[in-house]
Structure formats: structure tokens, C-alpha cells
Amino acid sequence: MEQAMIDSIRNCAVPFEDFHEFDVILREIDQQRLVLLGESSHGTSEFYKIRAELSKRLILEKGFTFIAVEGDWPACQAVNQYIKGWDRQHTHARDVVQAFNRWPTWMWANEEIVEFIEWLKQYNQTQPREKQVGFYGIDVYSLWESMDELLRYLKKTNSPELEAVRDAFACFEPFNRQPEKYGVSAAFYQEDCRDEVVKLLTDICLKRNCYFDDVESGLNLEVNALITANAENYYRTMVTDDTESWNIRDRHMVEVLNRIMTFFSHKAKGVVWEHNTHVGDARATDMADEGMVNVGQILREQEGAEQVYIIGFGTHRGSVIAASRWGDDFKIMITPPAEAGSWEDLMYKAGASNKILIFNENNKELFNQPVGHRAIGVVYSPKYEHLGNYVPSKMSERYNAFIYVTNTKALQPLEVEIAFL
User: Fold this and answer.
1) Residue 421 confidence class, pLDDT cut points 50, 70, 90
2) What is the pLDDT of residue 19?
3) Res 420: pLDDT
4) For this UniProt entry, which segments traverse the membrane (predicted)?
């Protein structure tokens, strides 16, 4: 089977050397409303550069209107305000990304994303307001930061919803911005803030039309309230059920995407940047056996597979930014050659050049046998990656296309003062 798959890759893949050579992918994208761009690690320079180049072309040639990333909504709002010209304080993206001060900072505070943010700002300066591209974070982690944003805005506007935010804030205050402490208290001692956050979300959503203005205040309030409710649920659940907390997180990310699409009257077309484990359809992996869902699966089910185009990424060897343990300082680690028999190993054996492989009706059957597919997170141990870094995947069912780079190098992080919350 291995040699047959190597031969199939060799026959079907298109080589590329320049990061602008993506015509083969652009020809596949026509009516889709969502393009999901993966990565097999959170610390690989080439993945960020390729996603940026693809995103630029999707904006320029296909009319895509926003970028959504696996990041915090409040920090990404700083970027959104900068690229749309609403931020009069900062003069360069390098200053704006200081907002990404929660570990792992390197995911968005890096040289590669700075260059892309500057491009987005320059592009928006040539567009009328209604055609400017947005930049949004769709993750669930920013519980306290989102409450901070709600408090700040509702105080400024003297809103009647301010009391609901204060109640929620007061409920969480004893946990000293430590989500693990809240999770234990909520899961084992029934000391939770569920009622407060549900009331907050309800109050904000009932009055959301009152906050619409030229700087997206209504959307900002609604999503921060949604994060407060879903993050409470996530942190309460993660202590006792890893599978369900994963599902809460990925459902949340889809819900935020839906709020963005609705806010722009369903005219929006989004490019989503997340790890392969989020964008690659979970039904084509062993995640499904564990009862896990993900963004790619949910969006295909919700929108219809023809409306969603998913691109996976991978590499054979190189270097990567990661940490040895959660919360530790990042370091540059060597990414060893891919494990024998893995998808990345087969791609390498089919020829050492960079490749793009489009999965279509003519070749899907050739690539629908489960094969180990490398996944590197923010915590990584190259020495032990064979014990848990390969996800059995039916590649042609998991993705619509795959971008393979033989030799990759680590991201270039910026110095950011980390906020330990």
C-alpha cells in the first residue's frame, strides 16, 4: 500500500518553489464562502508565509472579506482597528501585536504576521469602508480580557447592561484570573458563575442592535459576551472531560464565525487560519471514535461541503518554535524527519520538492486509507513525538488540498511582555 500511495502522490502532486505559485489552488476556489488554512504546528515560518500569500490572493482575486484566526478576540480587535484605520495611536503593526501578551505569545506576535498586518492596512486604505477586510480572533480562552472589554465599553456608554457585567465580574473575582482554579471550584464544589454569564449574554444579545456603529461595537460586545459564557463552560468542563471541553471550544469558534457572517449580512467570505486538528474534518480521523468534533466538520455539515474549502499543511523536517511544558519559555527545536510510513514521509519519498496535492473525484480513492499525519502543538517534545504526534487520517476526506514543504524553519517571535493570568 505504501508504494502505491507514493506513486499516486508522484503522479498527482504539483511541485512549487515560490510562495506565489498557488494558481492550482486558486482555480479550485470559486463559490466557497469559507476557506480554511491549516498548519501542522503553531511555530513554523513557512506556514504563516504561505497562508498570508494565499489570503492576499483570495482577497484580491476572490473577494474574501475577513481573516479569522485561532487567537483571542480582544487582542485581534487591536489588529482589526489598526488595519481599518480606527486606531490613531499605533503607527506600525509591530506595536499593535503587543496586545498578544497571553502565552503562547509567539503564535501571533511574530515577524511573519507583522508583515501581513501591514499589507492588510495598506490594502484597506485603498478600499471604501464597506469593502475593507477585517481580522478577528475566534478562540474561547479570553474570559477575563473579554469581561474587561465589556466593562470598559459599557462604562463609557453608561449602558443599562453594565450591571450584568459587574455581577459576572464580581462572581469571577475570587479566582484571581486563574481559569484552572475556577474550573476546579465549578466542577467539584458547584461554585460556578453560570447564571451570571447566561444573564450577561442574554442582556447583550437582546440589546445588540442598540450598539451598532461604524467601528463594529455591536459585534464586539456580542462576541465578548459570547466568549464570557462559552469560556465559563469550557473552563468548568475541562477539569472533568477533555473531549467535551474540546468540543465546546470548536463549537464556539464556529459560533463566532457565524456571528461575523451574520453581522455583515451574510455577504462575508472568510479565510480561517487554524491548526490542522481544527480545520481538517474530524470525521476522517480517529477523533471521531472519541466523540470529538472540530471546526472543519461542523462547517461542512452546516454550510454544505461545497461551500467550504479546507487546505492542510505539513513538513518533513526542519525547526519549530514550541515549549517543553505549558507556560514555559519558547525555544527553537529541531523537527526530526517524519516517522517512517507517515503521510509526511510518503510525501518526501515521492520526491523531495515542495508539493501541492489537490484531492478531487479522480483521485480521492487513492488517498482515503488511514495514514499517520503529524501534528505539533505549542507543547512539543521531538524525542517523544512518535508517542502521540501522529493522527490517523484519511487525507482526501480530511482536506480538499494539501500543501507540503520539505524543509521548514521556526517562526521569528517578537519580544512581548507576557501576562500570566
Assistant:
1) very low
2) 82
3) 43
4) none
Please give, one letter per residue, the 3-state secondary structure of the chain: CHHHHHHHHHHHCEECCCCCCCHHHHCCCCCCCEEEECCCCCCEHHHHHHHHHHHHHHHHHHCCCEEEECCCHHHHHHHHHHHCCCCCCCCCHHHHHHHCCCCCHHHCCEHHHHHHHHHHHHHHCCCCHHHCCEEEECCCCCHHHHHHHHHHHHHHCCCCCHHHHHHHHHHHHHHCCCHHHHHHHHHHHCCCCHHHHHHHHHHHHHCHHHHCCCCCHHHHHHHHHHHHHHHHHHHHHHCCCHHHHHHHHHHHHHHHHHHHHHHCCCCCCEEEECCHHHHCCHHHECCHHHCCCCHHHHHHHHHCHHHEEEEEEEEEEEEEEEECCCCCCCEEEEECCCCCCCHHHHHHHCCCCCEEEECCCCCHHHHCCCEEEECCCCECCHHHHHHCCEEEECHHHHCCEEEEEEEECECCECCCCCCCC
What's the mean pLDDT in 239-265?
A: 95
Measure CA 235 to chain center. 19
- Residue 419, pLDDT > 70, answer no
Is the four-CA dihedral 328, 331, 334, 335 of positive or negative sign? positive
Phi–psi pair at 246, nearest 5 degrees: -60, -45
Supply the DSSP string of 72-99, one letter for each residue: -HHHHHHHHHHHTT---S-SSHHHHGGG
Rg (CA), the chain: 21
Contacts 24+ apart (CB under 8 A), 328-331: 330/43, 330/104, 330/106, 330/413
pLDDT per residue as tens digits for the range 307-318: 999 999 999 999
pLDDT at 267: 82
- Of 126, 113, 130, nearest to 75 (Cα)? 113
Burial of 190 (0-12, 13-18, 19+ CB in 10 A): exposed
Indicate the pTM of the whole model.
0.95
| Strand bridging mode 401-408 / 308-322 | parallel
Distance (Å, whole) CA 130 – CA 322: 38
The pairing of strands 401-408 and 355-358 is antiparallel
Q: Residue 417: what pLDDT?
A: 66
Query: Is the separation of the CB atoms in 354 and 14 below 8 Å?
Result: no
Q: How confident is the model at residue 206 (pLDDT cuts 50, 70, 90)?
A: confident
Q: What is the pLDDT of residue 214?
A: 74
